[in-house]
Amino acid sequence: MPRESSTEGRTAKDRVAHPVDRRHRILARVAAEQTTHVAELARELRVSEMTIRRDIRRLERDGFLRQTYGGATAHVTRSFDISFNARALQHAREKRLIGMRATELLGGARVVFLGIGTTAEQFARYLPPHQEMTVVTASLPIASLLGTRPVRTVAIGGTVLRDELSCNGPAAIHDLERYRFDLAVIGAAGLSARWGITELTDEEAEVQRSAIERANRLILMADGSKIGLATNAVVSGAERIDTLVTDASAEAAELDRLRVLGVQVVFAGRPGPDARGEVRAVAGCRA
Asked: Which CATH number characterizes residue 200's domain?
């Protein structure tokens, strides 16, 4: 196998990936496929299998993965079985890739509001360690997830909405009033140029609305099935969105209408080829 430390005589295409880029590509493969093989990663990234295993241990240490061993193979898993909303099974791959892509758009934010839902949970799952970042959330699953990671996490209070396990009501709004956010990162039940960001319930919409009103910048994460859709509870007009992270299945005409309103559209990366073997990540259970 080529040595990791030497790049002389190679083209840019053949050059060994930087360790940070390499770990990011490992996470991208796991996010896309949930299963991949150490040997295949080693060949793709032109490093030894031992290097890939060290990367996996580092990702485990940072809280992205949990590593277990069985015989001569290694299985890397990360599972959060906190809630049981059936909508979690819909567009699971797209949500993983969207959440991961959104973590690349933090722009130095120090105080972040993170919304509710499976896509927001995927953002939390792939959020790099930030010792000086504070994440405020109304989602109990997200608070539980981030509570095991090197990120300062604040769960607001309020009445817990049973299906979503999110905090709502006057107490939740009161808690949000204590913060000014550099960035709000939220999902949505629907997004359209006409109706803007919409949610399923008035309670959820009120919390999301209060948070983004206190944020300097807004990232909205929505898979293609949500684009052009409007549900009953309006959160905000689409012009409030700075960046939309979505996937290639989103309706092009609706995206053009959103761009006219000033929304920057970012597409999550397409998943890589199928792979089988040692590395596994288990999707969350919420929508």
From this structure: 3.40.50.1360
